[in-house]
C-alpha cells in the first residue's frame, strides 16, 4: 500500500512505507530512492498536511507569522486579505464529471480550513482531444486534467503555456489516479464475450469512440494492440489486421467516452462497449446493475490520466498557490479515497473503504511506455496517416 | 334578390370519402409522431419524478445561470437583427444598385453554412491562434470561450431570419406608396414610420419570433465556441446536453421543457396577436 508524504509546502511524494522516524516523519520508498517527509494522513484531520500549520498549530500563530513576514516586506500574499475570490478553471475530460464535482467541495473545505478564502472552482468537460484543442485556441484553463499525456503535451508544444517537463512535476507521471480499459456487455453476456479475440467475431458489434478526438478511445486502441502483439508474438502485421477487423465491427464512432457510453447504454447499440473501467462502473451504478456486466480482458492498459498547471494562464501568485494546492491535494488520502469511490484506481487507498477497494479485479496492465510512451505512440498511431488512418476506412 | 341565379351546392372536395380519410390520417399520423410525441416525451420525462424534482432541476445555480445567459443573448441578438434585417430588406426592396444579388446571397449564407462550421470559423478568427488572436490577447479582450463569442455565433446564425421574412413582402409591395408619400413632402423617417413600417409589421413580427426561437435554441455554433464552462458559458441547449450526459435525465428534461415552453409561449403570442388584429392583418395581406 502506498503512503503519501510532504517534504515541503509544495513537494509531494507517494511510495511504499519503509519506517517511521522519531520526529513524526516517515520514510517511503519511491522505487529508485527513499524520501523522508511528514505523512499526509487521512485521520489527522484538516491542517496537518501543511507544514506551516503543523509547526505553528493555531490560526493565531499562522496569522502572526504571515504578519511578521509581511512587515519585513518579504512579499507574502496573505490569503485572508485577498479581496477578490481566486478563480480556478479546471478543463477536464468526459468521465471525471462526478469525481471533480465531489473533489471541488472537498478541496474548498480543506482550503478554507487552511485559513484561505474559498476559491471559485469552475469546470469544463468534453472529449479529451477537443478540450486540449479548446485550451490551445484560448480557453483559459488554470489546470488541465485530461485523459492522456499526449493531449497535455499538445498544449505544451503549441502554446508554450506549459513547460516541456510538466509530467515530472507531480508524482506518478502527474497522474493522481489511474484506470484501465474493460468491456461492458449486456446483462448475462449473451454473446459470450470473454477476451479481445471475441471482438472480431462476425456477430459482435463493438462501440468505442473516435481515437482522433477521444483520449479513452486511444487507450482502447492501445489495449487491443497490446493484446494482439502478445497473442501474435509481436507480429505487427497481424496486430494491424486484427485491429482492422475490430474497427470493422464498430458501427459508429462517437467523439467522446461519455457519448459512446450513452450510445451503448441508452440507445442500445452494439454488443460490447470498450470503456474506461470507471466509466463502466458508473454506467452500472447509474443505469442499474441488472442491465450490464463488466468483463475484464486478459490484457489491458495502465491508463494514466495526468493533471498539470497551465502556467501561461496564471494571473497572480495567489492563484498559482491555490492551483498548485488544488492539484497536490488530489494526492491526499481523502482525495484518493474519493477517486476510489468514483471508480478510479488510486495510489494511496489508506482512507478508502474496503468495499470500494474490493471492486477492482486484478488485471495485467501494460504501461504506455512499453510502446515508447505517448510522445511516440500519438504520431505513429493517431497522427495524420498513422496506423489508425491506415486501418480505418483505408 | 330574385334575379340572383340559384346555384347547386357543390362540396369543396370531390374525392372519395375513404381517400380523404386516408390523406387526413397520414397527416395526423406524422403530426403525432414527429411533433406531438417528442414534445410529450420531454414533458413526461421531466415530470417523471414529480413537480418538485423538475423544479429543482431548473432552479440549480448552473441551470439558472444557463437560463440567464440564453435570455441575455436573445435579448441582445434579436434587436440587433431587427435593425439589420429592416435596413437590409429596405435597401434590397426599395433601391437598385450593383451587387444586389450578391448581397441577397450573403444574407442567405448563414442558412447554408453548417452551424459547426460557423462556430469553427469564429474560433479560427478570434481564437488565440486566429487572425485577430494576438491583438485580442494584447488588449486583454476575450471573445472565444466567453460571452462575446456566444453572442457573435448567435448573431451569425440568426442573421437572415428578419431580413428573409421582410424582403419578399417589401418587394411585393413595391415602392409606389413610399414614392407617393415623398411627393407629398414627407421626410425619409416619416415615410418609414407611417408607410413602410405599418405595411411590414406582420412579416417583421414573424421574423422576430423565428429569430428569437433560433437564438434561444442554437446549439451547434455555440457549442464550438462556448468552452462549456459550467455556470458561465453554458447556454440552455448546452446545459441540457451536459445534464443528459451526467445521467441527470430529470434535470435535463426539465430544462428542455422550459426551453420548449418558451418556444410555445412565442407561438401562442403570435397566434394571439394574429387573432386580435385579424382585421388589420387581412387589410395588409390585400397587397
From TrEMBL, chain A:
GO terms for molecular function: molecular carrier activity; sulfur compound binding. The keyword Metal-binding does not apply. It comes from Paracoccus alkanivorans. It comes from the Bacteria. Belongs to the prokaryotic sulfate-binding protein family. PROSITE patterns: PROK_SULFATE_BIND_2. CDD domains: PBP2_CysP (cd01005). This is Sulfate ABC transporter substrate-binding protein. Signal peptide: none annotated. Pfam families: SBP_bac_11. GO terms for cellular component: periplasmic space. Keywords: Periplasm, Signal, Transport. One of its GO terms (biological process) is sulfate transmembrane transport. It is found in: Periplasm.
UniProtKB/TrEMBL annotation, chain B:
Pfam families: BPD_transp_1. Its main location: membrane. The keyword Transmembrane helix applies. It is a multi-pass membrane protein. The chain crosses the membrane at residues 21-47, 67-92, 113-137, 143-163, 247-269. The keyword Metal-binding does not apply. Keywords: Membrane, Sulfate transport, Transmembrane, Transmembrane helix, Transport. Residues 67-268 form the ABC transmembrane type-1 domain. Gene3D superfamilies: MetI-like (1.10.3720.10). One of its GO terms (cellular component) is plasma membrane. GO terms for molecular function: ABC-type sulfate transporter activity. It is found in: Cell membrane. Part of the ABC transporter complex CysAWTP (TC 3.A.1.6.1) involved in sulfate/thiosulfate import. Probably responsible for the translocation of the substrate across the membrane. The complex is composed of two ATP-binding proteins (CysA), two transmembrane proteins (CysT and CysW) and a solute-binding protein (CysP). This is Sulfate ABC transporter permease subunit CysW. The lineage of its organism: Bacteria, Pseudomonadati, Pseudomonadota, Alphaproteobacteria, Rhodobacterales.
Amino acid at each position: 500500500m502506498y503512503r503519501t508524504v510532504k517534504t515541503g509546502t509544495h513537494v509531494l511524494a507517494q511510495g511504499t512505507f519503509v519506517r517511521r522516524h522519531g520526529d513524526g516523519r516517515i520514510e517511503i520508498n519511491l522505487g529508485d530512492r527513499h524520501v523522508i517527509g511528514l505523512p499526509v494522513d487521512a485521520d489527522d484531520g484538516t491542517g496537518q498536511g501543511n507544514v506551516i500549520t503543523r509547526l505553528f498549530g493555531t490560526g493565531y500563530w499562522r496569522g502572526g507569522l504571515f504578519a511578521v513576514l509581511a512587515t519585513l516586506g518579504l512579499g507574502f500574499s496573505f490569503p485572508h486579505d485577498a479581496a477578490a475570490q481566486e478563480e480556478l478553471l479546471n478543463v477536464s475530460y468526459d468521465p471525471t464529471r462526478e469525481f471533480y464535482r465531489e473533489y471541488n467541495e472537498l478541496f474548498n473545505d480543506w482550503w478554507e480550513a487552511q485559513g484561505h478564502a474559498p476559491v471559485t472552482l469552475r469546470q469544463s468537460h468534453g472529449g479529451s482531444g477537443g478540450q486540449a484543442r479548446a485550451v490551445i485556441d484560448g480557453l483559459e484553463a488554470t489546470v488541465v486534467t485530461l485523459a492522456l499525456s499526449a493531449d497535455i503535451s499538445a498544449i505544451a508544444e503549441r502554446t508554450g503555456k506549459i513547460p516541456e517537463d510538466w509530467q515530472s512535476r507531480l508524482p506518478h507521471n502527474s497522474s493522481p489516479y489511474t484506470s484501465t480499459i474493460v468491456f461492458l456487455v449486456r446483462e448475462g453476456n449473451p454473446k459470450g464475450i470473454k477476451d479481445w479475440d471475441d471482438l472480431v467475431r462476425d456477430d459482435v458489434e463493438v462501440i468505442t469512440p473516435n481515437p482522433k478526438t477521444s483520449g479513452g478511445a486511444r487507450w482502447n486502441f492501445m489495449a487491443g494492440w497490446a493484446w494482439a502483439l502478445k497473442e501474435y508474438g509481436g507480429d505487427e502485421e497481424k496486430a494491424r489486421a486484427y485491429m482492422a477487423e475490430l474497427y470493422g465491427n464498430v458501427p459508429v464512432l462517437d467523439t467522446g467516452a461519455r457519448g459512446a457510453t450513452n450510445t451503448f447504454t441508452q440507445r442500445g447499440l452494439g454488443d460490447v462497449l470498450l470503456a474506461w473501467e470507471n466509466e463502466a462502473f458508473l454506467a452500472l451504478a447509474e443505469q442499474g446493475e441488472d442491465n450490464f456486466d463488466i468483463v475484464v480482458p486478459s490484457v489491458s492498459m495502465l491508463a494514466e490520466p495526468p493533471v498539470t498547471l497551465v502556467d501561461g494562464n496564471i494571473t497572480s501568485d495567489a492563484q498559482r498557490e491555490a492551483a498548485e494546492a488544488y492539484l497536490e491535494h488530489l494526492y491526499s488520502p481523502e482525495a484518493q479515497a474519493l477517486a476510489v469511490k468514483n471508480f478510479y484506481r488510486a495510489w494511496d487507498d489508506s482512507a478508502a473503504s474496503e468495499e470500494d477497494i474490493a471492486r477492482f479485479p486484478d488485471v495485467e496492465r501494460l504501461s504506455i511506455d512499453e510502446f515508447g510512451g505517448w510522445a511516440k505512440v500519438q504520431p505513429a498511431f493517431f497522427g495524420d496517416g498513422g496506423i489508425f488512418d491506415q486501418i480505418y476506412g483505408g | 334578390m330574385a334575379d340572383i341565379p340559384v346555384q347547386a351546392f357543390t362540396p369543396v372536395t370531390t374525392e372519395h370519402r375513404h381517400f380523404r380519410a386516408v390523406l387526413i390520417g397520414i397527416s395526423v399520423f406524422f403530426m403525432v409522431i414527429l411533433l406531438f410525441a417528442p414534445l410529450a416525451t420531454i414533458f413526461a420525462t421531466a415530470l417523471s419524478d414529480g413537480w418538485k424534482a423538475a423544479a429543482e432541476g431548473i432552479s440549480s445555480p448552473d441551470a439558472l445561470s444557463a437560463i440567464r445567459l440564453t435570455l441575455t443573448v436573445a435579448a441582445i441578438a434579436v434587436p440587433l437583427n431587427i435593425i439589420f434585417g429592416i435596413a437590409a430588406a429596405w435597401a434590397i426592396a426599395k433601391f437598385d444598385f450593383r451587387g444586389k444579388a450578391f448581397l441577397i446571397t450573403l444574407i442567405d449564407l448563414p442558412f447554408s453554412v453548417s452551424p459547426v462550421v460557423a462556430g469553427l470559423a469564429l474560433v479560427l478568427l478570434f481564437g488565440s491562434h486566429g487572425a485577430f488572436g494576438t491583438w485580442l490577447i494584447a488588449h486583454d479582450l476575450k471573445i472565444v470561450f466567453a460571452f462575446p463569442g456566444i453572442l457573435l455565433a448567435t448573431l451569425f446564425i440568426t442573421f437572415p431570419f428578419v431580413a428573409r421574412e421582410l424582403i419578399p413582402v417589401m418587394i411585393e409591395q413595391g415602392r409606389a406608396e413610399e414614392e407617393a408619400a415623398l411627393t407629398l413632402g414627407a421626410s425619409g423617417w416619416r415615410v418609414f414610420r407611417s408607410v413602410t413600417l405599418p405595411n411590414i409589421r406582420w412579416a417583421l413580427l414573424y421574423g422576430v419570433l423565428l429569430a428569437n426561437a433560433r437564438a434561444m435554441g442554437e446549439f451547434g455554433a455555440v457549442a464550438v465556441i462556448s468552452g462549456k464552462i459550467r455556470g458561465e458559458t453554458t447556454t440552455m441547449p448546452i446545459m441540457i446536453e451536459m445534464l443528459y450526459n451526467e445521467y441527470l435525465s430529470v434535470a435535463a428534461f426539465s430544462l428542455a421543457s422550459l426551453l420548449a415552453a418558451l418556444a410555445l409561449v412565442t407561438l401562442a403570442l403570435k397566434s394571439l396577436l394574429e387573432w386580435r388584429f385579424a382585421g388589420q392583418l387581412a387589410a395588409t395581406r390585400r397587397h
